[in-house]
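Sample pair:
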Amino acid sequence: MPQAKDSKGAKTPTRRVLATITADDVAEQRAALCAWAKDNGLAPEDVAASPGLTVEKRGRRTVIVYAEFQRDDQGRIMTDPADPSSAWTIPRTAPLVGPLASYEGLDGLADRHDQ
């Protein structure tokens, strides 16, 4: 498979989604997903349930891709300046430390994709 290139022609790592965690998954498996997030260096209270999270293989790295709430200097979640009806989030990645399958109740989330 040829390596992807960005708009300037530079090589970018290939991406493959290994698992998708939806807002419904977060609602149904909140406690287990919060433990998994903490063990992977994320602050669950800063991770937006919507649009969801993915676990992706990017080149040689496996990362968690998620949306992080933006907070003001008093710790309150900020309103998105482009859409005042929603919270302001920015895309983030974090290295995967503990796979979903190693957490009770979460192994089925990883099984929804080819590994």
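Residues 100 and 106 are 5 Å apart (CA to CA).
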